[in-house]
Amino acid sequence: xxxxxxxxxxxxxxxxxxxxxxxxxxxxxxxxxxxxxxxxxxxxxxxxxxxxxxxxxxxxxxxxxxxxxxxxxxxxxxxxxxxxxxxxxxxxxxxxxxxxxxxxxxxxxxxxxxxxxxxxxxxxxxxxxxxxxxxxxxxxxxxxxxxxxxxxxxxxxxxxxxxxxxxxxxxxxxxxxxxxxxxxxxxxxxxxxxxxxxxxxxxxxxxxxxxxxxxxxxxxxxxxxxxxxxxxxxxxxxxxxxxxxxxxxxxxxxxxxxxxxxxxxxxxxxxxxxxx
Length: 276
What we know:
Elements: E1 2-6, H1 10-25, E2 31-35, H2 41-53, E3 60-62, H3 74-81, H4 93-100, H5 109-120, E4 129-133, H6 140-149, E5 153-157, H7 164-168, E6 173-176, E7 194-197, E8 201-203, H8 206-213, H9 218-226, E9 229-231, E10 244-245, H10 252-272
């Protein structure tokens, strides 16, 4: 697996380190191609083009986001260039189109990780009402399609959805993927619902950390020691009413990385023309 990392964002570096560690644990070969945040977009495109042709690599993953200085639409230009057969994050138009038609081999990693989590936990998807808060290309839209393909009735909500809490509280399965710390409160959740928290938000404000974590909690003490903490989109109070809630960190994140490796294996099998 080839990972293209542009710039030095701490969160992106953390994600890449976690991918490398998991790859090593699974005896996968992974190599990072580090590019400066100041390189022109053309250099990123050239790197991806070379990796497309390099038969050493079965999978290519470009860590997002790219630096803002590369301009609007830069990420999409890079995604469009990735060879669909090596697209282990399933971001190319070809693989997205296949997902729409329910015939994709390589499926977006976080959404497919969510489905693995639900199915392995025995959560009934068929016939359930699933509400997805967030409409991003890498989580909201593809997870909605995956749920729909498994016969859920799916509602997609976003920043302009009216009466969001009322709609969310009708869900049997609630997926929060909007990138706002602690946004989903008890009023958003039907008693007994399954809540999947996709949020990865770095909190640095003491007042917010105290409100989300509780002043006497171990995690708040960790915040005081480090000066920051990772929290999800779901407020801890949701645990009082939900049937199940995924933790942050330690929930969807590790499954996302596992699905990156699963896609890399599928891509290698496809290149070899066989199944192992």
